[in-house]
Design goal:
Layout: H1 3-14, H2 24-42, H3 45-68, E1 76-77, E2 82-83, H4 86-113, H5 117-135, H6 140-158, H7 165-196, H8 201-210, E3 212-214, E4 220-222, H9 225-243, H10 252-258, H11 261-286, H12 292-316, H13 321-349, H14 352-386, H15 399-402, H16 404-418, H17 427-441, H18 445-471, H19 498-516, H20 519-529
Antiparallel strand pairs: 1-2, 3-4
Helix pairs in contact: 2-3, 2-5, 3-4, 3-5, 4-5, 4-11, 4-14, 4-20, 5-6, 5-11, 6-7, 6-11, 7-9, 7-10, 8-11, 9-11, 9-12, 10-13, 11-13, 11-14, 12-13, 12-18, 13-14, 13-17, 13-18, 14-16, 14-17, 14-19, 16-18, 16-19, 17-18, 17-19
Length: 534
Amino acid sequence: MNPINKEIQDIVAYVPDISLASLAPFLILLLGGIVCLVADAASDKKGSRRILPPIAGVTLIAAIASFFLGLVPSRPFVEGAFYGDFFAQICCIVCLFAGLLMVILAPRLIERRNIPSGEFYTLIIFASLGMCLLAMSNELLTAFISLEIMSLSLYVLTGIDRRSGRAAEAAFKYFILGAFASALLVFGMAFLYGATQTTRLDLMGQVLASGYNTLITGETVAVNPVWIYLGFTLVFAGLCFKLTLAPFHMWAPDVYQGANTPTAMMIATGSKVAAFAFLIHLVTALSFWEPFAGSAAFIIGLVAIVSMIWGNLAALVQKDFKRMMAYSSVAHTGYMMVGVLVIVSLPALLQGDDLATATATVRQAIALYLGGYTIMNVLAFGLAYHLDGESNMEAYRGLFWRNPGAAFGMGIAMFSLVGIGFTPPTIGFMGKFYLFKEGVQYGFTAVVVIAVLASVVSAFYYLGLVTRMFMREPETGDGAVALCGTGAHQCGLFTSASFTRMYLIGAGILIFVLGLLPWLFIGVGQHLASGIAP
């Protein structure tokens, strides 16, 4: 054989077999971001603000549609770098749902604060791209790159309002602590690779299940437990920053308060859902190592309990809406960690088909909670932004008498966020019910009891806002704080753009529909997992 032909064959043999159809959501988002940049460069300021919202909106809708077309395979693809199982795909759709609201809210923010529109819409799309990549990552380096795409976009979106000193301060704090978290992640990933000789999570699980590692020399050695423990601890600490788990939540209140409200909403929802999806994939792989369950459960349980208690107690004394929502997010992430505790413990309790079935059930419960949490926050932040009440909670006094529709919408969000027995049948209640049921079933009753008691505490500040809106009269005089969106103002919820009205009203309806029929949400995920992709 001709040496040149042989060399070409050898090169072709190393080229990965990648189906472009399986990458459809990523390619759509990447192309949409590039189109936004080009359209912005080719248009003047006024034209750019007119044409970019439709481009960004269509991009996100097309990316959502690609999941329902069955293009993403429910197995490892792209040489095992990604895994499009039910949980990953549903998390991607939830992230894109949050990104779409941010696009809908953006025109008014850009006009009011004179923000560069091209950069703003492009960064929304790239942040959504990073979230989708992270949610489906099945490989450590891919996860890190995806996390940085998401994080860098959110850093810039946080401080993009150059006239706001508070936004600049928030962006600086977010960047510094985010860089520190990224350093912990990389360091921990290095230890995990050293222990298992692979960066793919599915292969890592196989190595840990056997307990032995095959070196390049062919020698077989036992897995080093010190490296596994140290690697997981560092990676988990880095993810705790992204998930705002106590005591790694210090940045969240200042960033939520200083960032523009659409960006704060995206940080509270999309970035958290994506990071949580990767955490689930990571602990699923590591839990195949038998000694891992006990030690990891202690660390995860401790962080969950501290987050639930501190998040709710700190939220009680807040006078700023976004700071209250920041501490609320700390508590809600603590609730979600109940599901992680169960996943870590399952391999030690079950085997074979029973293990697969139980893991799928727990993942469905976590996905339902994540989806509900996103919908509730989308409604709350969206209403707060369109009422210009994102800072001062006293501005909500007597809102029912000025704008009953907005008051009812915020009330629905607050009741659903409480999510315990005396609240209506909302997605918040059903999400907690299914998640806590799994925790009790597999022996974490004490943690669930703490979670329920913490939820009772949360009722005081969530329903305190409802009390302000429905049971207090508006303040009058020079000291009164006015909300936009009342009376004849043209920036309130029910006099704003039709897309925003439809989106927020739809979110409020979803809170009740998915609360009464949670199987609809699970059915969507099961449809995605049985896709027809190659």
